[in-house]
C-alpha cells in the first residue's frame, strides 16, 4: 500500500482517522542509528507503526522494531510527542491519517538486521551519514530531537 505525506499543504485531503503510533530511535554501542527504507513511500525512516489494542505502548515499540528490522529492542525513554494536525498521511485504501506519533529512544538487545514486507532496506547508519538519505522533514525532526540527549522524559511502561 502506498503513502503520501502532506505537511501544511492546502491541497491535502482532510484527515479521516487518528492512530496513536510510535517510532524508535534505536542506537547501538557504536553510535549508529537503525534506519529502514519504507516499502510504502521509498523514504528512509525510523522503525515504527501503529499501536494495537491490548498492548502497552512500550510493547508497540518492541514489536514494531522487531517486525520491521529483525532487531530486538529495549525502550530507554521518550524523546518527543508529535501531533501536528497539518501533517497528514494519505494511504491507497482511502485512509487519511492525522499525525499522532511518540518517539522513543531504545537500545538493541539482540537479533540480526533483516527486511520485512514493510521495509525494502534496513541498516545501521552513522549520524553524520543521515543527511545523505531521503528522509521526510517530519522524521528528520524526530531524529534531531532524539539525538539531543538534553530532550528526554522519563518513561513508565
The fraction of residues in strands falls at 35-45%
CATH topological fold name: Nucleoside Triphosphate Pyrophosphohydrolase
Distance between the termini: 31 Å
For the residues shown, what is the average pLDDT?
93
| Major sheet: arrangement of strands | 1-8-9-2
- In CATH's first tier, which class applies? Alpha Beta
Question: Any overview of this molecule?
Answer:
With 157 residues, the chain is of the alpha+beta class. It has one domain: Alpha-Beta Complex (Nucleoside Triphosphate Pyrophosphohydrolase), CATH 3.90.79. The protein is built from two helices and eleven strands. The strands form three sheets. The protein has a four-stranded mixed beta sheet with strand order 1-8-9-2, with no helix packed on it. The longest helix has 13 residues, at 57-69. The radius of gyration is 15 Å and the shape is globular. The model has no long low-confidence stretch (mean pLDDT 93).
Summarize the structure.
This protein is an alpha+beta fold and 157 residues long. The chain is 15% helix and 39% strand.
SSE layout:
Layout: E1 3-7, E2 17-18, E3 21-26, E4 33-38, E5 44-45, E6 48-50, H1 57-69, E7 71-82, E8 87-91, E9 96-98, E10 101-111, E11 119-125, H2 137-147
Parallel strand pairs: 2-9, 3-10
Antiparallel strand pairs: 1-8, 3-6, 4-5, 4-11, 7-10, 8-9
Amino acid at each position: 500500500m502506498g503513502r503520501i505525506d502532506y505537511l501544511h499543504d492546502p491541497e491535502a485531503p482532510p484527515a479521516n482517522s487518528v492512530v496513536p503510533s510510535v517510532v524508535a530511535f534505536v542506537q547501538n554501542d557504536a553510535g549508529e542509528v537503525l534506519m529502514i527504507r519504507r516499502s510504502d513511500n521509498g523514504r528512509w525512516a525510523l522503525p515504527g507503526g501503529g499501536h494495537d489494542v491490548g498492548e502497552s505502548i512500550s510493547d508497540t515499540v518492541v514489536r514494531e522494531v522487531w517486525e520491521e528490522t529483525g532487531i530486538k529492542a529495549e525502550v530507554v525513554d521518550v524523546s518527543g510527542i508529535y501531533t501536528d494536525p497539518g501533517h497528514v498521511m494519505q494511504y491507497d485504501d482511502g485512509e487519511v491519517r492525522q499525525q499522532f506519533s511518540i518517539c522513543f529512544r531504545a537500545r538493541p538487545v539482540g537479533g540480526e538486521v533483516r527486511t520485512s514486507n514493510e521495509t525494502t532496506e534496513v541498516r545501521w547508519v552513522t549520524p553524520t551519514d543521515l543527511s545523505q538519505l531521503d528522509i521526510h522533514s517530519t522524521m528528520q525532526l524526530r531524529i534531531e530531537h532524539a539525538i539531543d540527549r538534553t530532550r528526554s522524559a522519563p518513561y513508565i511502561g
